[in-house]
Each structure stands twice: as structure tokens, then as C-alpha cells.
Amino acid sequence: MDTYDIFKKLSRGAKFKRKEKRNILLINSDADKLNKLPNTNIAENKLQEVKMEQVNENFEEHDQLAGYEITLLGNMKADETGKKSKKRKLANGKNDEQKRVLLEQEKVNHFRNLHNINVVGKNIPNPIISFDDIPIKQDLKDNIKTCGYYTPTPIQMQTIPTMMENRQVLACAPTGSGKTAAFLLPIIYQLQGPQKKGFRTVIVCPTRELAKQTQRECERLAEGRGLRIHVINKISKAVEQFGPNSSKKFDILVTTPNRLCYLLKQEPPISLENVEWLIIDEADKLFESGIHSFRKQLEQILVACNNGRRKIAMFSATHTPVIAKWCVHNMKGLVRITVGQRNAATDTVEQELLFVGSESGKLLAFRDLIRKGLTPPVLVFVQSKDRAQQLFSELIYDGINVDAIHADRTQTQRDNTVRCFREGKIWVLICTELMARGIDFKGVNLVINYDFPPSAISYVHRIGRAGRAGRKGKAITFFTIDDTVNLRSIAHIMKQSGCEVPAYMLTMKKQSKKEKKKMLSSAPLREDITTIPEYELQRRAKRRRRMQNDLQLKQRKIIERDEQILRRKKKIRDMMKFSKKTKKVSKRKDEFKKDNKSCKVK
Ligand SMILES: Nc1ncnc2c1ncn2[C@@H]1O[C@H](COP(=O)(O)OP(=O)(O)OP(=O)(O)O)[C@@H](O)[C@H]1O
């Protein structure tokens, strides 16, 4: 049987368009190899496999090339072509039951299409239309209502029934679209009530602020169920509280990878053997490579969660090919759920790029915005802790309630700042990348990227702090002549969300891989944020240096004086010892003399 025969046999009944030559050619080339196989049946089976692999590869390739923009329409078309042939069969006298199933499936596909839900995987549960569609008890339904959730968001529609069927999930949906409740509800439903087994669910988040927020949301949704939900506050206390010798009266742990790994390294370590759900929030952040990589810790956690029934669910608004590949290889029965376009900004935020010329122009532009009137709350992103502090020192005298949050502040200070911002006591919060992911400040009206974001992904998350849960928001990104390297990718994101962007930005030179890596590993050098004139700064620096020198001189003198005192004391001690010795010797001499005399007398 030659290649042509095999191909003819396999493609019986199928029509090929001329345009789709590429696939046929690929199959032919592989079929050539298979022709040499002795058994034709095996060859046919193999050819079928090759064909499937080829289709999958093409899918993957498309996935990567189009920046993971697999639209549901594409799926629908594939489904429809399949269904058309099925329908034809039905017309030829198949039973009503099959007809009903097909119609049902068509409805489901239409529903997913309507809500921009794209799914990849086998036997995926149907999405829910309302929270009443899931078999949860009345108390949980009441809690959902108390939270103000009346209809599920698209990510919740598909993720909740999928996780409730114990399927592992890789979910991607825009910022502020309700991913947290999408994973919390199935967990709370499955855990039912408290048990004495130790942690049964672990939720890993990249920052402590996000962990606390997730714990709060979990407590609200699980109200009245008696579940014990913990974040690790004091690490030393946690060793005893959650260690193997503890009461094991806890159910859900929300933590950062750092803290959990610390507990896993203790002797004896914390036990995660009863963990059934491992949720990884902001998954692409935890999968990032680089100096601040969480990847090793994630591996440790995965090893520690060694229960045979352990399932993983990953969530983020952005995903990279690395994470998708990892999930495909490590998560059995995986369901990939994507809402909208992957790595896209939320469409509820109006985006603007503002050219400010130079670094000093940023402060002028910012003050101009204040003058025109800012509607708080406002989040301002800068690239480093130092710059957050510098901007804070500048704005504190501008008559606005401003504060800064960054990793150099103590945990209590950070918690207080977040609380005050939520309560409206702080109007403008200056922050670093620390607050870019996951943090849900209700009603943030404006995000200002004072320093240009290091990547398009960072941009998506930063501006996603506004326009949450369907509300409107605005994002203004300052850029100078030095920020043009990254401008193109961000301009494309803006264009994708329907914002107006100057045409030249879209055709700028693409950022090379080297440049991308450099941007991510270290922030670009920028002039300090200050309005103090240069000569004044130099004068202050000189004075500071002089003061430091004086201080050093003083310290040296003190040290010298102390050493001198010590030397003297030692000398005195030595002299005392010597005099004691000489006294003893003379005493002995006297005694000897006395003895001698008495002998002579005798
Ligand atoms: N079904 C719902 N109806 C109305 N509001 C909801 C619903 N689900 C969640 N929300 C609200 O939407 C807001 C954003 O939710 P959440 O923080 O889970 O978003 P997210 O998708 O995780 O965002 P990010 O990607 O930034 O982490 C929250 O204030 C939450 O209370």
C-alpha cells in the first residue's frame, strides 16, 4: 500500500479545501516514514496518531503565535463541522436522545461564546448560569448574596462546576473578574465543615497582603460553616500552632511560598499530607524565573502535598507558555479555561499614555493632575522603594492625604496603610510592584504609572487595580524618552482594549529578548524624584558627608580612649599581682628566718 492509498483510506468521506494544503503535506511526509512498517493496520493506527499529533502541534503553535488568543469562535467552528456531519447522520435515522444531546451541546457552546469563555479539555462540565444551578446548601447561597454576588461572573460560571467535579484547572480571566470566589466556592463546598485532619486546602499567593485579602474573602463566603482559615502571621508561633504536634484543628491555609517553605523546613515539618486542593493564585508570578523566583519553593510545596487525591488549580489574569506547558505535563485531566483574550487588559479601564519629557516632567505632570482635581482613591506605581519614599516626601506637603507602601516598611505599617486606604483615610497611595497583583481596593478610580512598567504583563496587572468588578476606572502612564524600549508592547495592549494609540507607537522597533530580560532583572536608572535644586542637593550631600566624617572621628576617639583605659586597668592589675607575690615571698623569708633562729637556740 503506498502513501496515496493510506491517505485515501484515512480521508474517506472528508473534503479538503485547497488552502489547507499544509496539513496534508505534513501528514504525507510522516506517512512516508510509516509506509515502511510491515503491518498495514499498525501503520494506519500510527498514521491516525500522527495526524492527531500534527493537529495538536498546529494548535500549540497557533497558541503561541497568536499570544494565546484562541477564540471560542475557532472552537465553535471545529465543533460545528464535527456536528454537521453528526447531524447528517442523525438525519439518516439516529435516535432522539442523541439529537437532544447535540442540541444541548450547541446551546452550551453558544452560551460560552456569548460570555467569551474558551475551554480546552475533555468532558468539561457545562457552565452555570446562576448560583442556584450548583448543588450548594442554603447557608452558602446566603453568604454569596451577603457578599453582593447575585450572578456569577464568566470565570465563575465555568470554573465552579469544573472544580466541583474535582477537575484540575488552569484558569485565565481579566483582572477584577472574580477569580478568587471562583476557586473559593468549590473549596468551601467540598470541605463542608471543620475536621481534625490538619490543612485540607492550601492557597498560595505571591504577597502577604494578597494572602490576607483572600483569607478575608474566604471567611466571608464560609461564614457559619466553622471552617478555620489561617494566614501565617508570626512565623515562630506558626511552627508550634500548625506543627505535627498541634491539635490539627485547622482547614485552610492561605500563605506566601516563603513562609510555607520555612514551616516545611522545620524539624519536624508541618504536615500537608491531607491537602486535597492546592490553589496557586497569580500562578505566572510564582512561575517566573529570575532572582526573585518562587519556582523552587513551589516545587517543595508540591512535594509536601503528597496526598494521592491532591488536585491543583492555577489562576491568573496573565499566563505564559511555560506555565501552560507545565500544567499540560503535570496535571491529569486538565481543563484550561480562558475568559476573553489572554494577557489582555480589562476593558473597563480607560487607558492613556502621557509623554512627560524627562524625570522632572513627571512631578510637574503629577502636580498638574492634582491641580485639575483628582478623584480619590488613587494608586501611584513607582519602580523602587527609594523612589516611593522620595515621591512621598515630595507630595506630603501638597495638601493631599498620601502614604507609601513598600517592602522596607514593617508589616504593621503595611497593614495599617492598606487599612487606611481601604477606609478612605489615605487618598493617594504610592506603591511598588508589591501591590500590582491581586489586591482588590474597591473603587480605585485612577492608577498612575509614575514609572513605566517593566513589562506588558506588569502593565496589565497594575492598571487592573482600577475598573474592578465591572466598575469604570482610568489609568495614566507617564513616559519619557528613556521608556521607548517597552512602549510598543504596551501600546499594543491599549489598542487591543480599544483605546486610541498613536500609529507610530505600534510600529516601533520590537523589544529584543535581551532588553526584555534586562528590564525585568533590574529597574532602569532614573534621576531622583525631587524639586530641590541641584546646588542645594550638593550642599546637603557635602554637609552629610562632613557630619559622617565628624561622627566617625568622634567614634574613633571614643574607641581609642576606651582602649587606653583598658590598658591602664590591666597595668594596675599586673602591678597588684606582682606586689602580692613579693609580699608572699618576704613573708616566707621571715618565717624561714624565725625557724632558723629557734633551731640555733635549741
Ligand atoms: N459574582 C460576583 N458579582 C459581583 N461582584 C463580584 C463577584 N465575584 C467577585 N466579585 C467582586 O469583584 C471584585 C474582584 O474580584 P477578585 O479580587 O476575585 O478579582 P480577580 O479576578 O482575582 O482579580 P486579579 O486578577 O486582579 O487578582 C471583588 O471586589 C469581588 O468582591
- Trace the largest sheet across and list its strands: 1-8-2-7-6-3-5-4
Radius of gyration: 34 Å
Class derived from helix and strand content:
alpha/beta
* Number of contiguous helices: 22
> Overall mean pLDDT score?
83
Global geometry:
extended
* Uncertain residue segments: 10-82
The major pleated sheet works out as:
8 strands, mixed
Distance between the termini: 141 Å
Question: Mind explaining what this structure looks like?
Answer:
- The protein starts with a helix and ends with a helix.
- Helix 4 packs antiparallel against helix 5.
- It folds into four domains: 47 residues; 28 residues; 223 residues, P-loop containing nucleotide triphosphate hydrolases (Rossmann fold, 3-Layer(aba) Sandwich); 186 residues, Rossmann fold.
- Helices cover 52% and strands 11% of the residues.
- The chain is an alpha/beta fold.
- It has an eight-stranded mixed sheet.
